Amino acid sequence: MNFNNVDFDTYFKNYPDKDGYFGKYGGSYVSPELQVAMNEISAAYQTICKSSKFIAELRKIRKEFQGRPTPISYLERLSNSIGTGVQLYVKREDLNHTGAHKLNHCMGEALLAKYMGKKKVIAETGAGQHGVALATAAAYFGLECDIYMGSVDIKKQAPNVARMKILGARVVEVTEGLQTLKEAVDAAFAAYCREYKDAIYCIGSVLGPHPFPTMVRDFQSVVGIEAREQFVGMTGELPDAVVACVGGGSNAMGMFAGFLNDPVDIYGIEPLGRGPKLGDHAASLKYGEEGIMHGFSTIMLKDENGEPAPVYSVASGLDYPASGPEHCFLRDLGRVKYDVVNDEETIDAFFTLSRLEGIIPAIESAHAVAYGIKLAKTMGKGSVLINLSGRGDKDMDYIIENYGIR
After folding, report:
1. Number of structural domains, the chain?
2. pLDDT in tens, 174-191
3. H-type helices in 146-283, by residue range?
4. 300 forms bridges with which residues in the sheet?
5. Is residue 42 annotated as a catalytic residue, yes or no?
6. What is the DSSP letter of 62?
7. Is 394 a catalytic residue?
8. Which of 91, 102, 182, 394 is catalytic?
9. 256 and 308: one domain?
10. Which domain range does residue 196 map to?
11. What sign results for the dihedral spanned by CA atoms 31, 190, 132, 176?
């Protein structure tokens, strides 16, 4: 399959290039001193990702500790309620240990830290699932763990904050700026700059300077690889469409990786929030422009001074003013279609999936569910596979307080 002269048969061999670029996006824009640390991480990863010992240990962890493979569920009642004949399915990353896809790359990054002789892992978190996953990985491998989290998200995601602390992590409250995910990344990155000799920064998405977008995609690709095999096994054919939510984009890149070279429509769904006005959403791929932030070239939302703009989403894990460089590249190629859903559509989908299928989704994942429902209503036949990237336990107090029980 070719899109704009890119051969997807050889895509993963060619992208990113040796400098970490997906087309014009990605790379590493950090200080010379920190670049030494990036080079160290890249060299270590390129060594162990080819190591049979590392691969065997990671496979054992996924099977015996994480509970992989996670299943695909057919949403019969929801499909019937739409009434078009289109069949909806979900990949159940909510059943992965800790309740989301995040553990897929956290266990890999923590294993890399052990290989490199690091004593600590550092990360940011928004919805808290990445923080919980990394705290879990740190406990598993016996590493120290510092998690940076904005004050607003600490209040919204109190259950996950408690889980991180129970697992032994130090949760560092970030009080600057809007006190959400972007500021948490700023603080975590600053801490890593101070501590890189003894620590590794385990970024929570396909973001940041090279090699992080590649590493996280590779660790998350297990989602798409499993999903493709499972779906064909269940139905005898490929889905007509694959849908995933996109903030930074780790769950989406993991899912998309399994289908890029197939005749399947792929949709990445961003948060439109309260509407298209700057500051009311976090839809960088729809409304953003080229820029550099947090050490990589990307598509980002900018304020009047060209700095990262304030963003908003009902989902703490999606309120980031940029997207991963590979998503920017796939958007430009036209291989993945990026669209939006707003808060109201998302909350409706949250309750609809819960009531009709007995699955309470994370608010982040509910964005993908909402779009999957909208898409199914426009299709005359076929199937849609949605990545249910996480469960909604963390969101229930916030939902009830702000939206009640519908």
Report:
1. 2
2. 999 889 888 998 899 899
3. 151-156, 158-166, 181-195, 212-235, 250-256
4. 289, 322
5. no
6. I
7. no
8. 102
9. yes
10. 21-62+101-213
11. negative
